Amino acid sequence: MLNIIMFGPPGAGKGTQSRRLMEKYNLTYISTGELLRKEIKEGTQIGKKVKEQIEGGGLADDETIVKLINKAIKDHESSEGFLFDGFPRTYVQAYILDGLFIRLRQKITSIFILELPDEVCKQRLLQRAKEQDRKDDNEAVIKKRLEEYHQKTLPLLEFYKDTGLLTHIDGTGTEDDIFRRISKHVNEDLKKKATNVVMFGYPGAGMTTQANRLAHELNLKVISTREMLQEEVRLQTSIGKQVQPYMEKGLLLPDEIVIRLLEKKLLENNSSERGYVFKGYPRTLVQAYILDGILQKKGQDITCVINLNVSYIELMKRLDERSRTSRRMPYDSSASTIVSRLEEHETHSRGVLEYYREQNQVIDVDGTGDIDEVYQRIKEPVLRASKNLRQIL
Fold first, then answer.
1. DSSP-based three-state secondary structure for 253
2. Is residue 169 packed enough to be buried (19+ CB in 10 Å), middle (13-18) or exposed (0-12)?
């Protein structure tokens, strides 16, 4: 998810550039100025409260701003990202925004500062006042707003100075010139961000086939806990001997064992890889938390979760057919073990899906039909969820 803050003095073109970024990267635009003007126009209680402050060139109080921002975020929690124009403006508001994103389990990804001389800003605002009949764009108000920016907003950059998120942008030139400067940095950030997909579904839903195809086409790496464990069993390592009884019955393994193997697998890979497709993990809520923690060590997170939906009857048919092939699993040996495996998955899967649904990361996909058809249903939403892949491919 992209979450961008746009800084700049009044008249620097923040609104224009923000709208272009919103359109190109499918972001939800949140402008405190627009939110406040909307309240004033509709004559709401908040609108009446801040009308005199805005027309006098002042700033609305933090409590009012918090209410508006919180409502705007809640109304668009399924958004692919947010772009903030005019917020935060103070240290207090910066902490408020951090708190809002902690609740969403998200973070700020980029902060752009449009730089333009005060005199140029003043002329732009006076021209806008004529064209749009903006009463708040007179010389006295403009002077006060510029003073507010230099005295209160610019010092706020100290809050973010050690984050590595700040990028200064030359605000002179045409709209296209400025937009190209900003887009260049956004695209560079996107290319650095890994894409991590969880392939989720019942045994027999086709996770292996679709995970391998998705990874191959999008240049991701498949992480299969089952394959890692099978290798341990094949080599008859101490771990292999320990997990073999669990695997033969398709039961969950102790998390301590899986964590070590998974962490080793992830940390041994080159950090330049675009990301992973996780198959067969996480299978429990505890494992979902574990995976978040392991990815956090790499500075990454989950991009989306593909939930393959296949009817219970179809799953039984597929697993029965698989039991007669070389692809058979140990628990494919009888109807009773198949049913046991499906029931075990059902017991633990609810918590995992609920966990990811709360973060708006689950993409439900119909897993029936031709393999190619199912893959297309998967690929398109993954590309939508992962902006870095859309820019690269």
1. coil
2. buried
Phi and psi, residue 46, nearest 5°: -65, -40
Low-confidence spans in the chain with pLDDT less than 50: 271-272
pLDDT for the residue numbered 271:
46
* Furthest-apart CA atoms within the chain: distance in Å: 83
Of 313, 319, 347, the C-alpha closest to 333 is: 319
Token output for 40 = 């004033």
Distances (CA, A) of 292 to 109, 198, 348: 18, 12, 18
What Rg value do the Cα atoms of the chain yield, rounded?
26
E strand or H helix at 243:
helix 238-249
Domains detected in the chain? 2-192 (3.40.50.300), 195-392 (3.40.50.300)
- At 368, the amino acid letter reads T
Residues 6 or more apart whose Cβ sits within 8 Å of residue 132: none
**Pairing state between β 28-31 and 362-366:** unpaired
Of 362, 364, 197, 345, nearest in space to 283 by CA = 345
Helix (H, G, I), strand (E, B) or coil at 84: strand
My answer on whether omega of the bond before 117 falls inside 30° of 0, hence cis, is: no
Using CA atoms, how far apart are residues 262 and 267, in angstroms rounded to an integer?
9
Write down the residue that tokens 């392991």 correspond to: 294
> What pLDDT, on the 0 to 100 scale, is given for residue 188?
82
Residues paired with residue 29 on neighbouring β-strands, in sequence order: 83
Q: Which contiguous run of DSSP H or E holds residue 5?
A: strand 2-7
pTM for this structure?
Answer: 0.62
For residue 268, what pLDDT is reported?
A: 67
